[in-house]
Here is the input.
Amino acid sequence: MSFQPPDPSLIQSAFPEIRSLTFHRQGGFKAVYKTETGTGTEAFKLLCLPKVTEGALDRDLQEMSRKAQLGRALREVSILGDIDIPEIVKLGSIKARIADVGGLECLGYSEEWLDGENLWDILRSPSRVPPSEAECRRLLECLVTAIHALWKLDKIHRDIKPLNVMRLSQEGRPFVLLDLGIAYDLSEPGLTYNTAFFPCTYRYLAPEMTEPKFRERLDFRSDLYTTGLTVYEFASGRHPIAQDMDDMVRTITRALHDLPPPLHSLRPDFSEPFCSLVDQLLRKKPMLRPGNLEQLQKRIRSLS
Here is the structure.
């Protein structure tokens, strides 16, 4: 369910440090704006918390849903505050706080504004130019570096996909990972109140996450799988498993049972070692994917 973003004037009244506000995009109960603050251009995120209806039969569910949404947002802010590497988006100058915005209870905060394009838009551009192996290798290295930084804090991103990766033109910072809104913290209880359903993007779902007790065995190798999906799709222009007309059930069935074509069959101009590494990330069983992130980083660098 989406919502109508509040009028910018109402947002600026609640967050007076904002000097200007331009709508960028929205999804669910969240809207993102391009804003000017005292420190420059930033991305302002506004999460409107769902209302809890007094006397409603599902009031308890409403409260749990609100708690989960707020918890995920605050977890994202906390993780970003603990990590400072070029490969992951950085927090901005507006600290996270809850405010009344035109009668809506909202959480607002800012991140750095990144001048670039996300990989999802690049993949669907009619003027798309297939990337070189060197660029795909840089993408892989950036994502694995981000995964390693998160894993050191017992965190798993859980939502690595083309939409959450920005390509920049900055020297030394070619790709940046965004949106830790559904990141998982191994040291904390889960925030999902209905364990039969959990937040995810089904086209980018590791097979093991369909298992009833996946949280007991979850580790960084699930992020490696979705990294493999992202690099494969960026390199080849097609998702290795999902098809655009598939529904959720068919997509997950493919993820569980269908083997993707080897990357080298779609990009014969790429080296065998690089393609084999991407193929290994897409193994159905986590134990068959790389199990040591430092060794994986060395392996990636050795391909250059």
